[in-house]
Amino acid sequence: MEKNIFITGIGSGYGKAIAKLFLKKGYKVFALSRHLPEDLKGKITFVKCDLEALETVYPSVEKLLKDVKKLDFVILNAGLLTELKDIHDTPIYEMERMMNINVWANKVILDALIDMKIEVDRVIAVSSGASVNGNRGWHGYSISKAALNMLIKLYSREMENTHLIALAPGLILTPMLEKFVLSADENKFPSVKRIKNASKMTPEEAANLLFNKLDKLKEFPSGSYVDIRSI
Fold first, then answer.
1. 19-40 residue pLDDT tens
2. What does residue 26 show for φ and ψ, rounded to 5 degrees?
């Protein structure tokens, strides 16, 4: 029987690595993203969508999944981080952008799946350790990922036949991490030095770790926040 996975944010990094791995494992991959990488063209079912434009998300999901009855996995991977700075110096509009992509777009997607009556076995929303540790400089990213954790817990109460997890995937060397974190002031933001000194996974290593931990993740109660490094 055909296995289906739906992923957001497959343009680069972790999402792209997940898409390529699940393709290798025999899954049919459906994806929403701003970009379709050259090496995935013709291999996945794709609809271009900027998740920040919330009004486009629901119709994009409908278009992408119009013929789908069941999804084995939904990976809500797309996310936005901006330059590290004190929350006092971070304008509301910048934090609203992170809330729209990191939280509200995922609400719209889950609503669409429910309305379309697609059978969904498992949802894994990509969260972050930033959602719980509150380190200086992570402003709207920490707030939005904390909100994502609660969003997943709330939907777990309603999607009773689906197992939902908010997952911190570990430290992954992605373009986002390099651009906004590794270049930041490590004296002003102590977490930057810790991240620089910590071991980091390639996106491919992180995708493999996720795949290898899928059975373990299923053991946690639906709606849980889980840091993959703790299991």
1. 999 999 999 999 999 999 999 9
2. 95, 10
